[in-house]
Specification:
Blueprint lengths: L46 E6 L14 H7 L7 E3 L6 E3 L2 E6 L5 E6 L13 H14 L5 H6 L3 E8 L2 E6 L6 H4 L10 H4 L17 E7 L3 E6 L20 E6 L3 H9 L5 E2 L7 H6 L3 E6 L3 E7 L9 H10 L2 H8 L5 E2 L22 H10 L3 E2 L5 E3 L2 E2 L1 E6 L6 H13 L4 E6 L2 H10 L4 E6 L6 H6 L13 H12 L3 H17 L4 E5 L1 E6 L3 E2 L2 E2 L5 E2 L4 E2 L2
Helix pairs in contact: 8-10, 14-15
């Protein structure tokens, strides 16, 4: 299929001032732009054609990281629990009941009866055990998020065919929420027995409402409805079969092509609808659905072992050198928020640190002056013969990244910092991250739990800062993981956000919002708690 290009496509880079004129102010987080979805009783059948902005990286939910990948993998696996996107409360899914030991080290789940994988084999307590064991075996390089959720895992015990107890060596306060994520979704024995690489080729077998029908790497993915599905999440409107017969995901990197194809009815929904594309989407009878992502907002993560970023004064100066409101107003639009902390505002445990994350270039200049960084003839500072220059590596997992960083580049130059941009393919960035081969990295990470601070900044976790152990921050991260009391844990998460800023380990820019262009025939396309798409309740009006 040849996809149409948008006739009204405008370049994003620094021309996003159009965002302010699009009339979007009435659209809040999680809401639609003007133009209603179909109404009436849901209709079964049909194929939904979806345009992804990036290629999925792997068909294995346990190894999934990007939003575009998770839009696909979420549909083929179920999780032990689900998380209500509105209240944050955990709800039954594969497990109908669960309990936690008083010491927070053991978690017992009782599975619903009669659940099967799409190959016909039963989903049992032993299936859960094998899945968690396999994630630990794969390890943090291939499955960093999944492995971090099982930190301290000592094993699972099959109490009976429908009951499993999951044990940890220390209290693990984040684990219940983690069981609602696709990374800990349960797959069949035939899948978890495969090597990690073989689990990325589209042959994964889950218990979810859809199955893999076709996987063409870097091109397309086709999912088919699983008939006989009868154990849907308590959050689903209907617990039985999905309404759609098939979902065809096509990789369409160019935003204008995605928008033109949606407007011309060649696609039914698309990722990363940009502000300048909204009028054309609405003109075709469609709408844009927005929701804010919880987790760590977009920001610059300095490698504190490299070059000028070893100087804490430079990292501190960056915090106040960036005009975040200008980033949102110029490049994006009112559906996006400025970052005001190390956590996004939708995340449980978020603390508003806007007094620290503010625009004050005079303060930045003063910090750099006091640290001995002297402006040169071209305005860029230097110290002991070293120019105040560093590179930021980024990939285009979000369509606005380059334009945002180009504006940041201009802003920080005003205080004497030379920020260089290094656009990098996602796969290449992963290799460089593993090797610590970068000055700074720009990205975000989504999760509806404050424990994402531990997985991002913990020395034994992702730690792209490449930092050494530090008693205060490491102590807070360890306490957060082991504290069962909700109020105390919330306080620790707040203290951790301050501690990260104290060391200049994250330079927040803006909060990510998912912006999904939706055609006029699509109804009930929904976001789950971590702002990924859930297609079970979606239907097409024909």
């Amino acid at each position: 299929m040849k996809l149409a290009s948008s006739r009204t496509r405008r370049p994003l880079a620094l021309a996003g001032v159009v965002a302010a004129t699009l009339g979007l102010a009435a659209c809040g987080g999680g809401s639609d732009s003007p133009g209603g979805a179909p109404t009436g009783p849901p209709q079964a059948g049909g194929t939904l054609r979806y345009g992804l902005s990036q290629a999925p990286t792997c068909s294995d939910p346990a190894q999934s990281g990007t939003n575009q990948t998770l839009y696909v993998t979420r549909q083929v696996v179920d999780s032990l629990l689900d998380q209500d996107p509105d209240s944050g409360q955990l709800k039954p899914w594969l497990a109908d009941t669960w309990s936690v030991s008083p010491d927070g080290k053991s978690f017992t789940f009782h599975l619903k009866p009669g659940i099967t994988f799409s190959d016909g084999t039963p989903l049992t307590a032993d299936s859960v055990r094998k899945n968690f064991d396999s994630i630990v075996a794969i390890g943090g390089v291939k499955a960093p998020l999944a492995a971090s959720y099982l930190s301290g895992y000592t094993g699972s015990t099959v109490v009976d065919p429908q009951t499993v107890r999951v044990d940890f060596g220390a209290p693990n306060a984040q684990f219940l929420q983690a069981t609602s994520t696709p990374q800990l979704g349960i797959q069949a024995d035939a899948t978890v027995a495969k090597p990690a690489e073989d689990r990325c080729q589209g042959g994964n077998i889950g218990s979810g409402p859809f199955t893999y029908a076709d996987w063409k790497q870097n091109a397309s993915v086709t999912l088919a409805k699983r008939t006989g599905y009868a154990w849907g999440s308590a959050i689903f409107t209907d617990k039985g079969d999905a309404y759609l017969d098939r979902i065809v995901f096509t990789v369409v990197p160019e935003s204008g092509v995605r928008t033109g194809s949606l407007a011309s009815d060649q696609l039914d929904a698309v990722s990363d609808a940009l502000p300048q594309d909204v009028p054309q989407i609405e003109g075709g009878g469609g709408r844009v659905q927005f929701t804010s992502n919880p987790g760590v907002p977009f920001g610059i993560q300095p490698n504190v072992t490299r070059g000028v970023l070893r100087d804490a004064a430079v990292r501190t100066a960056l915090l106040t050198a960036i005009n975040r409101k200008e980033l949102v107003d110029t490049v994006l639009g009112p559906q996006f928020k400025t970052a005001t902390s190390v956590l996004a505002s939708k995340t449980p445990g978020y603390v508003d640190l806007s007094a620290r994350v503010k625009f004050d270039q005079d303060a930045s200049k003063k910090i750099l002056d006091q640290a001995g960084w002297v402006p040169g003839g071209d305005g860029i500072r230097a110290k002991d013969g070293q120019r105040l220059s560093f590179a930021v590596m980024f990939s285009s997992v979000f369509a606005g990244n380059q334009a945002i960083l180009e504006l940041v580049q201009q802003q920080v130059r005003a205080v004497g910092i030379d920020l260089r941009l290094e656009p990098t393919a996602f796969a290449d960035a992963a290799v460089r991250e593993k090797n610590g081969d970068f000055d700074a990295d720009y990205y975000n990470s989504s999760r509806a739990d404050g424990d994402i601070l531990r997985t991002t900044f913990g020395v034994g976790q992702r730690n792209l800062n490449e930092r050494a152990p530090e008693p205060k921050l490491d102590g807070l991260l360890a306490q957060e993981l082991s504290t069962i009391d909700d109020a105390q844990r919330t306080r620790l998460i707040g203290d951790t956000q301050n501690a990260v800023l104290d060391q200049g380990l994250w330079i927040p820019t803006l909060e990510l919002s998912q912006a999904i262009g939706v055609g006029k025939s699509v109804a009930d396309l929904k976001f789950e708690a971590s702002a990924r798409l859930q297609f079970h309740d979606t239907w097409l009006k024909r």
